[in-house]
Design a protein that fits this description.
It is a single chain. This protein is an alpha/beta fold. It contains 9 helices and 12 strands. An 8-stranded parallel barrel has the order 1-2-3-4-6-8-9-12, surrounded by 4 helices. Strands 5-7 form a two-stranded antiparallel ribbon. About 45% of the residues are buried.
Length: about 290
């Protein structure tokens, strides 16, 4: 099982790998800089070679990069749209330099337009970026919770984007458990049915990455508020509407085998998280 969490890039790729190792993780996810802006350190300052060497020595692999939130390929505003395309292209290059095979992307929000407009806009932007030439990397569209006007709240919407992309071999899916639950899929009682629907609509060959999160809300709430896994003594926040049993079933399911599982569960304070405990519990090391 490749399981890890979001880690900081503040210490470069080496610092990220060392943080992941401190959680006994064997994979991890990073942003290449702050997710809310375009400020980026030069690659030469990010200790990439040292990070790769550390990962090789400690069995860490199949790492994931997350594209910043400010990328909105569904926008009708030309300056926002141009920024989204140009910055995505740069982030793809940085992801490749990190040695990642995946960059996870929130598809976008259509704001004042329609979902159909947003879907076409996203596909157009992806075509522009991919057709200009990119490294061998998969852009993983993330399943979204459905809040506001964001796109990706259903498998059908994600499929509609993929259908309009010219070079579909560059497109995959990141399956977020909190988002999928919040958008209305019953991953608690019927994950078999959900993953079967995913295969029928999109295809399991496009399933590349999992974000593993509990949810503070009931199925279909469209809220997108992550929770620590399991509403019991291991969860200081005391609430998870998905629960450990459902999450554990998902990460050990035969159809999810071989994909990186990335925790994005909340920190319980500014200095403490539960990543190490959650990883151990999902591995079966803590009962």
């Amino acid at each position: 099982m490749h399981i890890g969490s979001h880690v900081s890039i503040a210490g470069g790729l080496l610092g990220a790998a060392q943080e992941a190792y401190s959680y006994n993780a064997n994979t991890f996810m990073v942003y290449t800089g702050a997710p809310q802006n375009t400020v980026r350190k030069p690659l030469d300052d990010l200790k990439i070679d040292e990070g790769k060497e550390f990962m090789k020595e400690h069995g860490i692999e199949d790492i994931v990069v997350h594209a910043p939130y400010i990328i909105n390929l569904a926008s009708y505003k030309e300056n926002t749209y141009t920024l989204a395309k140009e910055f995505l292209a740069k982030e793809i290059e940085r992801s490749s330099a990190f040695g990642s095979k995946y960059i996870v992307l929130h598809p976008g929000a259509y704001t004042d337009k329609t979902a159909e407009y947003g879907i076409e806009r996203i596909a157009e932007g992806l075509n522009t970026v991919i057709n200009a030439g990119i490294p061998d990397i998969t852009i993983c569209l993330e399943t979204m919770a459905g809040k506001g006007s964001e796109i990706g709240r259903s498998f059908e919407e994600l499929k509609a984007i993929i259908d309009l992309v010219d070079k579909k071999e560059y497109i995959g899916i990141c399956f977020d458990t909190c988002h999928t639950h919040d958008s209305g899929y019953d991953i608690i009682n019927n994950f078999d049915g959900v993953i079967s629907d995913f295969n029928r609509i999109i295809g399991l060959d496009r399933l590349k990455v999992f974000h593993i999160n509990g949810s503070l809300n009931t199925c279909g709430a469209k809220k997108d508020r992550h929770a620590n896994i399991g509403a019991d003594e291991t969860n200081p926040k005391g609430k998870d509407c998905i629960g450990f049993e459902a999450i554990n079933y998902i990460v050990h399911h035969e159809k999810t085998h071989g994909h990186p599982f990335i925790l994005e569960t909340p920190w319980i304070s500014k200095t403490e998280n539960l990543y190490k405990q959650e990883i151990a519990r999902l591995r079966g090391e803590i009962i």
